[in-house]
Amino acid sequence: MKLNRFLRTLALSAALLSVGSLSRAQTTMQFPTGQWQGFAPARIQCGWLYGANFNTTNDQAIQIAVPSRYYLLDSIVIDNASVSLTTAAGGFYTAASKGGVALVANSQAYSTLTAAAVNASGSAMLATIATAGQNNQLNANPIYFSLTTPQGAAATADIRVYCRPAY
Predict the structure, then answer these.
(1) Which pLDDT band, with edges at 50, 70 and 90, does 129 fall under?
(2) Average of per-residue pLDDT across 103-107
(3) Using CA of residue 127, residue 132, residue 134, residue 140, what is the dihedral sign?
(4) In the chain, what are the domain boundaries?
(5) Which DSSP letter does residue 98 get?
(6) Distance from first CA to last CA of the chain, Å, rounded?
(7) How many Å apart are CA 52 and CA 110, to the nearest integer?
(8) Please, what is the average pLDDT of the chain?
(9) Nearest by Cα to 154 from 6, 27, 51, 45
(10) What is the pLDDT of residues 19-67, one digit of tens each?
(11) CA within 13 Å, CB half, 135
């Protein structure tokens, strides 16, 4: 009788141990209880303007999309120029007609864009973000690309805006 009880207890213990090894305790990494921003990307592409006209001084709007009320401007990448941009210069602003905060100064030259081919020297550049663009929380939507000096001939390039959302 005692042996029977011992064997049943041993069998029950073994069964419980095998079931217990299949289930794991839930951790905060598996089921976070805090706010979701701990899992959100720190830097996102928040705007783009493909085929921006580098031969006009007209404002060109770039819509900004961020998952928060505010954002910090991280960088602006220009690439895929249709021609070597030897004379184009201009900036990015929070308001039309070169108004609001100058995110990139109106004297930004795009002459480093000399090639469109990927992996070629001169195929992409980072715009120089102005101090005001670096040190402000922004909610401007859209932002505006506006040249002060056009290329002088048909020219296009792609613009990508990267932001750090203030979650």
Answers:
(1) very high
(2) 94
(3) negative
(4) 42-166
(5) T
(6) 67
(7) 13
(8) 85
(9) 51
(10) 554 444 444 444 455 555 556 678 899 999 999 999 999 999 999 999 8
(11) 3
Distance CA 65, CA 165 (A): 10
What is the Cα–Cα distance from 116 to 82, expressed in whole angstroms?
A: 6
Q: What is the value of pTM for the model shown?
A: 0.75
CA dist., res. 125 & res. 127, Å (int): 6
Shortest CA distance to 77 belongs to which of 141, 126, 39? 126
Helix H or strand E encompassing 50: strand 44-53
Those residues whose C-beta lies under 8 Å from the C-beta of residue 155, and which sit 6 or more positions away, are: 53, 54, 55, 81, 82, 83, 85, 88
Alpha carbons 70 and 61: distance in angstroms, whole number: 18
* Whole-angstrom Cα Rg for the chain: 28
Phi, psi of 10 (to 5 degrees): -65, -45
* Measured CA distances, 166 to 66, 74, 130 (Å): 9, 12, 19
Q: Flag the least confident range among 28-32, 39-43, 76-80, 112-116.
A: 28-32
Buried b (16+ CB within 10 A) or exposed e, 127-163: bebbebbeebebebebbbbbbeebbeeebbbbbbbbb
